[in-house]
Design goal:
79% of the residues lie in helices and 0% in strands. The chain is mainly α. The longest helix is centred in the middle third of the chain and has 46 residues, at 115-160. Helix 4 runs antiparallel to helix 10 and helix 11 packs across helix 12.
Length: 401
C-alpha cells in the first residue's frame, strides 16, 4: 500500500484540477440553496462520467499516446471539432477558476478591490512556476495540497453535525427541475461535477509525463473517489450552515471567500479561520495551476495532430494565448464571479455530450485494446443519453422562457 501511495501522481493532478469551483463554489451553493437533495446529482454524475474519465489514463497506458491522438484516429474532423470545443471553453474556464482564487487572496490580505490586477498576478505566477519547475514541481506540490484539503474538509464536515439544528421555514426552497432557474443551476453543477469531461484528455497527457506503473488504475481511483467524497462534504457543509437561513451566496469574489471561510469556522471555531483560508487558497490555486498547465498542452497536441511535428513545440505559445485571453475576460468581468462561473460551467456541460460520444467511438473502434468492460460500456451509453437529454432540455428551456 505504501508503494502505491508513493506512486500517486496524475491521479492527484486530476483531483487538483477537479476540486475547485465545482466543490468550493457549486457544491457549497447546492447545499445552501437546496439542502441535501443534490447529493444524488453528485453520485450520479460520478457514476455516469466514470467511463469517460478512466479512459484518459487507460488509453495513455495502452497506447503510449494521449486521447488527442485517439480522437485523431476517428478522422481529421474529430481534431477540428476538439479544437473548436477547447477554444470555446478554455478562456472562460480559466477565468472562472482564477477569479475564485483571487477572492481568497483578497480575503487573506483584507482587500476588496484590484480584482483584475490580482488575477493577472496569479496567472503570471502560474506561468513562471510551470516554466521553472515543470511537471515535477506541479506533481510534488499537489501531494501536499490534497492532504491539507482532505483533512480540513473532512474534519469540518464531521463537526458541522454538532451545530444546533436550524428550524426550516415553510418557504425554504426545494429543488424543482421544471423551474428554469433550478434547471440552469443543475446543469452548471453537473457540468463541473467532478469536472468537465475535458479532464480525461488532460489526464492522458499527464499520464504520459509519468513512467507507467502497474498502479496507474489505483492512482486514478484515489483521485476520482476522493473528488466524490469531498464534493459530498462541501455540499453537506453548505446545507448544515446555510440552508434554511436568509443568507445569500455572494457573487463578488472577496465576499464569497469570506462566506466560505465562515462556513468552516462555524463548524470548527474561529481558531480555524487561517487554516481554512490556507487550505481553500491552496485548493483553488492548485486548480488554477493545473488548468493553466493542461489546456495549453491539449492545444499543443491538437496543433501537432493538425500540422505535424513542425507544430510540436507550441506549448509556451498557447500558455501566452491563454494568459492573454483570460486577462482580457477578467478585465471586464472580474467582479462578476457568479456570472463567470455559471457561463463556464454551462458551456462545459453543453460540450460534454460531443466529447462523450467521441470517447465512445474511440473505444468501439479499437476493441483490441479492451479499454472498457461491459458494465462501463453500458454506463457510457446511459451517460451519453443523459448528458444529451439535459443539454436539449436546457436549450429548449432557454429558448422558450
Amino acid at each position: 500500500m505504501l508503494t502505491k501511495l508513493k506512486s500517486l501522481g496524475p491521479g492527484l493532478l486530476y483531483a487538483g484540477a477537479a476540486i475547485g469551483v465545482s466543490h468550493l463554489v457549486q457544491s457549497t451553493k447546492a447545499g445552501a440553496h437546496y439542502g441535501y437533495i443534490l447529493i444524488a446529482a453528485i453520485v450520479l454524475a460520478h457514476l455516469f462520467k466514470y467511463p469517460f474519465f478512466v479512459l484518459g489514463p487507460r488509453y495513455a497506458e495502452a497506447t503510449g499516446q494521449s486521447l488527442v491522438s485517439g480522437f485523431g484516429k476517428l478522422g481529421k474532423w474529430a481534431i477540428w471539432l476538439l479544437l473548436l470545443l477547447t477554444l470555446s471553453t478554455m478562456f472562460s474556464v480559466q477565468a472562472a477558476i482564477t477569479v475564485v482564487t483571487t477572492g481568497l487572496v483578497q480575503k487573506a490580505i483584507g482587500l476588496t478591490s484590484h480584482t483584475a490586477f490580482i488575477s493577472l498576478t496569479i496567472l503570471i505566477v502560474c506561468f513562471l512556476i510551470l516554466r521553472v519547475g515543470k511537471f515535477s514541481a506541479l506533481e510534488n506540490l499537489m501531494k501536499v495540497i490534497m492532504i491539507v484539503l482532505a483533512v480540513t474538509t473532512v474534519f469540518a464536515f464531521c463537526l458541522s453535525f454538532t451545530l444546533p439544528c436550524i428550524l426550516q421555514a415553510p418557504s425554504t426552497k426545494v429543488f424543482d427541475i421544471s423551474s428554469s432557474s433550478d434547471l440552469k443551476f443543475l446543469l452548471a453543477f453537473v457540468g463541473w461535477m467532478p469536472a468537465p469531461l475535458d479532464l480525461a484528455i488532460w489526464h492522458s497527457i499527464w499520464a504520459l509525463s509519468n513512467t507507467p506503473t502497474k498502479h496507474s488504475e489505483f492512482d486514478f481511483r484515489v483521485g476520482f473517489y476522493g473528488t466524490a467524497i469531498l464534493g459530498i462534504c462541501f455540499l453537506t457543509l453548505g446545507a448544515n450552515t446555510m440552508y434554511g437561513t436568509d443568507i445569500q451566496i455572494a457573487t463578488a469574489p472577496s465576499k464569497f471567500a469570506s462566506q466560505l471561510v465562515d462556513i468552516f469556522t462555524t463548524s470548527m471555531g474561529d481558531w480555524s479561520s487561517y487554516i481554512i483560508l490556507i487550505a481553500a487558497f491552496t485548493t483553488m490555486f492548485s486548480t488554477t495551476l493545473t488548468c493553466f498547465d493542461a489546456m495549453p498542452k491539449v492545444m499543443n497536441h491538437i496543433t501537432t495532430e493538425l500540422g505535424g511535428d513542425s507544430y510540436k513545440n507550441t506549448h509556451t505559445f498557447w500558455q501566452v494565448i491563454l494568459l492573454t485571453g483570460t486577462a482580457i475576460i477578467l478585465s471586464f468581468y472580474s467582479t462578476s464571479m457568479g456570472l463567470l462561473v455559471q457561463f463556464a460551467t454551462i458551456a462545459s456541460f453543453l460540450t460534454a455530450p460531443l466529447l462523450a460520444w467521441m470517447s465512445y467511438r474511440i473505444v468501439t473502434q479499437q476493441p483490441e485494446l479492451s479499454l472498457w468492460n461491459r458494465t462501463e460500456k453500458v454506463l457510457s451509453i446511459i451517460g451519453i443519453v443523459l448528458l444529451s437529454s439535459l443539454s436539449i432540455l436546457f436549450v429548449s428551456t432557454f429558448l422558450y422562457h
